[in-house]
Records
---
Amino acid sequence: MTRSLYLSNVRLADGQFVSVSSVDGRIEAIGAHVTAPPGAHLEDGGGALLLPGFVEGHTHIDKSNWGRPWYRNEVGPLLTDRISNEREWRKTSGHDAAAQSLALSRAFVQMGTTRLRTHVDIDTDARLRHLEGVLATRQTMHDVLEMQIVAFPQSGMLVRPGTVELLGSALTEGADVLGALDPALIDGDPVASLDATFALADRHGKPIDIHLHEPGEIGAFTLRLLLDRAETMGMQGRVVVSHGFCLGALPERERDALLDRIAHRRVALLTSAPPSRTVPPLKLCRKKGITMFGGNDGIRDTWSPYGVPDMLERAMLIGMRYDLRRDDDLMIAFDCVSEAAARGCGFADYGLRAGARADLVLVDAASVAHAVVARPVRKLVVSNGRIVARDGALA
């Protein structure tokens, strides 16, 4: 049975009033003189601003406490403290990755996110248990939330024998991307760690998304090794470096040389724009042709009490971190959670154009900049041609 939707009286970012028709989950036409398909469900947008569905480029839905009682955070200050604390807590608390990932996924959809990349912990304690929970959530939400799953060795890879094999099993079972974590500071051997990561990705034909928290010269050293392997293995355009804190702390000349190499190898960068860490230079990256996009990272988990599944809020935080004040600059912040995020993650058929997947968000805002700053209630959310939320509530 054909599923059709006709959305009239909505505004594009340039102020033009248009209508949108979609058939079977795809935008059929968008413009001032579009007519309704036969039998379409009709919706009057009331002059609201039309945005594309939002893209969450980096989160951890398997470990969230969203909707659960408050978690009292008394963890130590080191990265290894947080890793060990989380692994033990998940093992002893009864935390359910299936239930929590489903609750958070629904909240994302309610607030306008229609594409999402999530990292899922794979380790020798939990093995594939968390992955199985998130795979169940992906199946449940598949018609309204396009999800990529990253098999992520949160506790390290080489330091926990058997993890490489588990990561391979995760990729076979349905993970889309191979994750990695701080090859020097966690695995203790960046050469061997990156060799194992790229070999595994090559064997399974999967892209890579690496958490790189390593600071300064250590991070730069790891990044150079990674870029060498991306070129040698022919993985240009198939690698994301998440966080990349070192790129915000290097001397200008060294930083710019690394950015040129990143651009040449078409490596994308992900930032959550944390206020407490150095961050890659957003405008300079864009000027050099590097795809840089945004994500929440963890949301209400044992690592941090912060975060909400609202990509307009994340765009606002990106704007604040990078001192984006002009309306045109705030368009950059929104791009980080829309077009750039879709491009960086490799989500196809994205945007407000004929042929794209019909993922649409309506908000009462004067402009995109206004929407980012005010984060208004989502008047309407359409995912894959279906109305999934109305006036801030799931439909």
Note: The mean pLDDT is 97.
---
Amino acid sequence: MNNLLRYLFLRETSTKLPLVNVVKLEGVIAPSRGVRGPQARRLISLDRVEPWLVQAFMPALKTFRPAAVAISLNSPGGSATQSELIYGRIRALAKKTKTPVYTFAEDVAASGAYWLLLAGDEVYANKTSLVGSIGVINATFGAVEAIKRLGIERRVYTAGKYKDLLDPFRPVRKDEEEQLQDVLADTHDSFKEAVREARGNKIAGVSEAELWSGRIWTGRQATLLGLTDGVARLEDKMREKVGDNVRFVHCSEPLRGGLADALGLSGNWGGFMGRQPDIYSVTSSVSEALLDEVQYRSMMARYGL
């Protein structure tokens, strides 16, 4: 249906004017299987965004073959695995279709989102965008004293020494910390490899120690260091690249849903099927939506957004 509407709207000009297919990625990078409603809209995963990418690079109608694909990113990062998968899918589609890719950072493209930013043949940011954070993090908590005060006895039975790795209700063992640090270091190495492959000898003016430290830079600083290719807005840069008469075709879903979606009801509402949601499902979904809002704002607040 979307392709048909685009065809009807642009049928007189699509064969004459250059098209740029735009994909907007916003939210935390994390797996999204089984997640519904507003929670799903806040996640960037391969499952969720692959249909948009395929539509952007390989539209059903030949008249919508793009002159370029532009990807706009606004994310504090998240899953290293999902970042690697999406990066790989973008590069594979670009190679298969021989379509140039341009990536743009909005407010923030940090950590795993910077990994995604590297998927562009050319990489851009706004002057005040936050870019970088080339590092890996694993955050947990410890409640050893709290569980003692509550008089709770923790009972965990395992087959395998590390099946209860970093259990928050007991003291951390030295060998556990070392094992986790090895995993983080290896993941960090994969991130570094992606940066070296994408930016090569463009990076200058920053030491290795600082580059891999996990710190962030503004878009203007990132350009001076070679982490990005320049400071630019998506629309302006694409007009410069393909012409002032460019037409933009958005291939991703709207970032905000309707009222039912905002309340966390969209995944459970069955009115069109002649059934009503049970009160437990509605209450549970609304609670999940509120908790998701708190978690999302906490993640974005990490970068002062």
Note: Residues 259-284 have pLDDT under 50 and may be disordered.
---
Amino acid sequence: MTAQSSLPQRGVLRSFLPGRGVLRSEWIKLRSVRSTYLSVLFATLVAVVLGVLATSSDASNWATMTAQDKAQFDPLGDSFIGLIFGELAFGVLGVLAISTEYRTGMIRATFSAVPQRGRVYAAKALVVGVVSLVLGMLLVFGSFFLGQAMLSSKHLEVHLGDPGVLRVVLSAGLYLFVVTMIGFGLGAILRHSAGAIAALVAMLWLAYPIGRVLDHLSYLPSRILLFNIADAITRTHAATGKPALRIPSLELAYSSLALYLVVFLALGAWRISRDA
């Protein structure tokens, strides 16, 4: 590649590199809106409360469980049962981080201050991504430790040093991060909070029955659904029986998550480069 041909590519790259001022501005915006705190509070309450209730119920009813139920018992799965709903709150956080500016018209002032839209988008994505990753990890580790504390009375708990446990906990936090960024991408693409949240709900939950309908043709559609990807990466043991046909391998699950992340961020970047 010649030096001349590499110059346009370098210019495109620079247009997506946010400066400190842009990053600081986006951080102030994110922590200044009430929806940020409400989303995080909802996710925390749902994830922690449901996880504690599920694991405490397991501990209380362990003596009366059947042998089959005991064999299928998953201490991690019950600790993270609240993330099924908590993920929506993280996704909504991503949506509102960008769609709110379009709803209020503030985006025009943002682009007036920083005409390079790529830098604005990159700064927003970086701030939202870092915040969601940190909060997601805090949430899953908190859910894990509280859940295991409930199970410890019956000696059913697992520890981070046990095989596969740390991977599962980290994967749960990573999943929340990806869902947040999918919501962020949807917010940039649709520029309408309600529409983007509806699309997010469809991706998280409503796509599941569609995948079931297509199972008689191929299990691949089910295996790349977010619902089943989450199931795959939050297990220490592989699924068994017919439901296992819908659960992707770890390799497919992680590569699908990466594809979701790249596609939605790329589509959002393309959309934000259009007319505001």
Note: Residues 117-151 form the longest helix (35 residues).
